[in-house]
């Protein structure tokens, strides 16, 4: 399958939901992943990217939270679960997928926050991810503002 923007978008959508489920239930990751495959039509989804996000975030959680928690005005645990899942997933992308432009990572997170997050969560997510991008993707951000 050729990876399209919409296939990546679906992968992020499902990964955010799977991370949310993992955060709320503490269920086994492989069981959550299997459940998503059983319950959703994954034919138009970048399944490899979904898997990478889901497992990559949980495997590198301390490093990921360290990269964005310094910009928070509260503890990570005090974030609503949607914002926490989005910040974890997007920070993972910023740190590990330099092939994905930082603006795409932020725009996708903002879109998901608008759809699933509490009122105005998208503004909060945007602000935090701007700061993460400035640090993690400084060369790209500087070139962009150029």
UniProtKB/TrEMBL annotation:
Q: What is this protein called?
A: Transcription antitermination protein NusB
**Protein family according to the UniProt entry:** Belongs to the NusB family.
Q: What functional role does this protein have?
A: Involved in transcription antitermination. Required for transcription of ribosomal RNA (rRNA) genes. Binds specifically to the boxA antiterminator sequence of the ribosomal RNA (rrn) operons.
Gene3D superfamilies cross-referenced by the UniProt entry = NusB-like (1.10.940.10)
The entry's cellular-component GO terms read: cytosol
User: What range(s) does the NusB/RsmB/TIM44 domain occupy?
Assistant: 9-133
Under Pfam families, the record lists: NusB (PF01029)
